[in-house]
Design a protein that fits this description.
13 helices; Rossmann fold; alpha/beta; homodimer; N-(1-d-carboxylethyl)-l-norvaline Dehydrogenase, domain 2; about 300 residues; 3-stranded mixed beta sheet; 9 strands; 6-stranded parallel beta sheet; 2 domains; about 15% strand
């Protein structure tokens, strides 16, 4: 199937969607695209993609349609809103939603689409914009097994680890677990670095000495050095992390699971959001909230944004 | 200096101290030892160590004396109590305290010993009993630079990463930072696995799929599989982690640094301590507290201890 030229669609060409769609084109597939701001599609159109005025138009000619938008209501709009996919749905269509949205809403959308013979796979990703550009994303898929097998060769063009987690919503649940880990790991990094800083230990020493041991994490290795040099440019923006943590808590509420550490991390991210431009900073700006809490000034090398 | 046979002492031959002392003997140094329970010294005495009835007796004949005991009062007793090191102190003696204790108390002890011409290096370790046995510990040293340089060749017999962090207490402060990281990383692992469990996602899938990404940590890779198979045997016991977190909060209080995440982790470890034998479980038993909080029963494969 990988060698066959397929009719694909992609809706949502932001910082993640555009490079992901590019891999589909580069592999020789026919690609129809739509996104809210047409200028974001220009590079793909130059490479041979076809513009569609609505999600329905994308769906009309495609076997598999990918969506990569921000939040649950955006997916709902693309699927069921005016000019939405469902209005052009034909039986056998597979929709692969790579957005990070609510697992419960995903299950609801999936059931509604099934009435039209349309399969919805939830397929949120991790790996960030770098993973999107390099096709090294991890893609966590929930939904029908047969639909997954049909979509898998195309997913493999965009990621290096493609996992079918379970039924509809399971991909989103696993992504939610990932966001819990990320939130608490950066909280640990921030509190550890705040204590080190208060006693005059160079943050680089903390990262170097502790990074290889039992306290080590991706967050310490990757965000630690950025904090040490006062760099809060986003790898992943706090406002998107907050959107994801809201989804986490909604899922946890539905499952009656208390997540007190995650809740604390949300509050501290909110404290960063209270700074001008704070929500647009990277999640490593959690460090600003921990400093703020103890009324400690940012160090001299801290970037001025959000300070 | 490494090639020279030196007169060394070791006080505290528990699960960490005994193998550490063994490396000194194995390297050909003369070793005098003392520990509360003499039976713990038998293997070392068989290998050629000399028994001393008191810490003072150990100090009388040694250039460098190592201590590896549990808590701040234990170190104080070994240094300044009846039969303590200071009663036999001669100028030039170097004491290397590898215990994890209070940074502030360390600075106080160091100042008191300096009046006798005795140098105290704080040198807490990470790497656990496996690191102690394999001489792969990370050793974080605070105190006088000249004393550090004299002790370094011997420290290199016990660890693979020996770092002079700064003045007296700096080694303990860096160890405190490590314990913050460990506490919050295992909290993240526990909350993520609890949410996964509630939605029927296999914990092994969480560990496999998320471990290599931005949510990855030593805790997820090492404690995750133990939680998945219901294994709460201690790598590091909760009651020792709690002792260390008390030290962290004392140090943070002295520095006026609020550590809300660390405080939450302490409370959840306390919830595990409320179970019979809970304090003797490994820190991965944080998972029990997170389950308990939402009134979820332990899975069938959970080991009965502390359940």
């Amino acid at each position: 199937m990988n060698a066959t030229r397929r009719n694909l669609g992609f809706i949502g060409l932001g910082i993640m969607g555009a490079p992901m769609a590019g891999h589909l084109l580069a592999a020789g597939h026919r690609l129809e695209v739509h996104t809210r701001t047409k200028s974001k599609a220009v590079a793909l159109l130059d490479q041979g993609a076809t513009w569609c005025g609505t999600p329905a138009d994308v769906a009309a000619g495609a076997e598999v349609v990918f969506t990569m938008v921000t939040d649950t209501p955006d997916v709902e709009q693309v699927l069921f809103g005016g000019g939405g996919i469902v209005t052009a749905a034909r039986s056998g269509l597979i929709i692969v939603d790579t957005s990070t949205i609510s697992p419960q809403a995903t299950r609801d959308f999936s059931a509604r689409l099934a009435q039209h013979g349309v399969a919805l796979l939830d397929a949120p990703v991790t790996g960030g914009d770098i993973g999107a550009r390099n096709a090294t994303l991890t893609i966590m898929v929930g939904g029908d097994t047969a639909a997954f097998e049909q979509a898998r060769p195309v997913l493999e063009l965009m990621g290096k680890k493609i996992v079918h987690v379970g039924a509809s919503g399971a991909g989103q649940m696993l992504k939610a677990c990932n966001q819990i880990l990320c939130a608490l790991n950066i909280l640990g990094v921030s509190e550890a670095l705040a204590l080190a800083e208060s006693s005059g230990i160079a943050l680089e020493t903390v990262i170097d000495v502790l990074g290889g041991g039992a306290g080590g994490s991706w967050a310490l290795a990757n965000y630690g050095p950025r904090i040490a040099r006062g760099d809060y440019a986003p790898g992943f923006m706090i406002r998107l992390q907050q959107k994801d943590l809201r989804i986490v808590q909604e899922a946890a509420q539905a499952a009656a699971i208390a997540l007190p550490g995650t809740a604390l991390a949300q509050q501290l991210f909110r404290a960063v959001e209270s700074l001008t431009g704070g929500g647009d900073l990277g999640t490593q700006a959690m460090m600003k909230a921990v400093r703020q809490l103890s009324n400690r000034p940012p160090p001299a090398n801290d970037a001025p944004r959000g300070a």
